[in-house]
Design goal:
The protein is of the alpha/beta class and 300 residues long. The protein is built from seven helices and twelve strands. The strands form three sheets. The protein has an eight-stranded mixed beta sheet, sandwiched between helices.
């Protein structure tokens, strides 16, 4: 019933990218340390040879020690510092340590913000405002879905069947109306469906999109669609569960078959609902499965 999810070029996970960059940096540092060690050995041998050549003349002595020994000593200190930085400092105070320090700072800042919000809320309480939802008799709230014999909806954000006539019916019924959906359903569309107002219901307070109106509960979604005589609730599974409590009608395409899925249409008590029409469609060369178009209305 819904559009297939648009395939995107796979992108490397930011965390994996960070780990790879850290590993590359560590390899570079160890390679530099090895080079430093080799140069130190070669240089030490060279200084010893030079000192032996210069034994025929008076050697330069500093604090009772010949100059080349001082050079080797300073050079050795740099080598030890380099090794300490690679194997100790970067391991104990590396990216993981920096990340923990950053998380602690963020946590402290969030605690301060929470305390300030509580203080402001106590000193300046907001009035209790409730979203007014128009009376149900002014409109019909409809859930529209396609479900298998065991209420199967789909898997991995997509349908497990292809029924062109069901797509046509979905388009015919919902065009010109508000359609209420969850974030995953919205993101499964290659692009927003034309001639429909998309209302995206999500728990994420930071979610934003240019393709529709973002709300965080069903009451707000219905309030946004208050001017529509027949808004549609189009899924997924969790949104259907919320919609079952407020819907007046269910337009259900019952697909005759059992399927392996991860999302299901909610069970509804048929004592509270009345089947007012049913239209059967057999399987054919365009439809692998037989299906029925069913219209259910809530019993008053």
């Amino acid at each position: 019933m819904f559009g297939r999810k648009k395939k995107e070029t796979p992108a490397i996970d930011p965390l994996q990218k960070e780990m790879i960059e850290n590993a590359q940096r560590r390899i570079k540092e160890k390679r530099g340390l090895f080079t430093h060690f080799v140069v130190f050995l070669v240089g030490a041998v060279g200084l010893i040879i030079i000192s032996q050549v210069l034994m025929s003349v008076d050697p330069i002595v500093i604090l009772g020690i010949e100059w080349w020994i001082w050079v080797l000593f300073v050079w050795l200190l740099f080598l030890i510092y380099h090794a300490f930085k690679v194997f100790i400092t970067n391991r104990l105070l590396g990216p993981e340590w920096e990340k923990r320090q950053y998380e602690r700072l963020v946590e402290k800042q969030q605690e301060r913000i929470s305390k300030l919000e509580e203080k402001v809320a106590q000193q300046h309480p907001l009035p209790d405002v409730k979203i007014a939802i128009p009376e149900k008799q002014n409109r019909t709230i409809t859930m529209i879905a396609a479900a298998g014999a065991n209420n199967e909806l789909g898997k991995d954000g997509d349908l497990v069947w292809h029924l062109p006539d069901d797509f046509k019916r979905f388009k015919s019924l919902t065009t010109g109306h508000h359609i209420i959906m969850g974030r995953k359903t919205f993101e499964s569309f290659p692009k927003p469906l034309p001639n429909r107002t998309h209302i995206i219901l999500t728990r994420d307070p930071n979610y934003k999109t240019d393709g529709g109106i973002v709300v965080h509960n069903m009451e707000a979604a219905l309030a946004v669609a208050s001017g529509d005589e027949e808004p549609f609730i189009i899924g997924g599974g969790e949104i259907y569960k919320l919609g079952l409590e407020v819907a007046d009608r269910i337009e259900l395409t019952r697909v005759h078959g059992s399927f392996e899925v991860d999302t299901y249409f909610p069970e509804f008590d048929e004592k509270q609902w009345k089947l007012i029409s049913s239209e059967s469609h057999p399987a054919d060369d365009r439809h692998q499965y037989a299906f029925d178009f069913e219209t259910w209305e809530r019993v008053e």
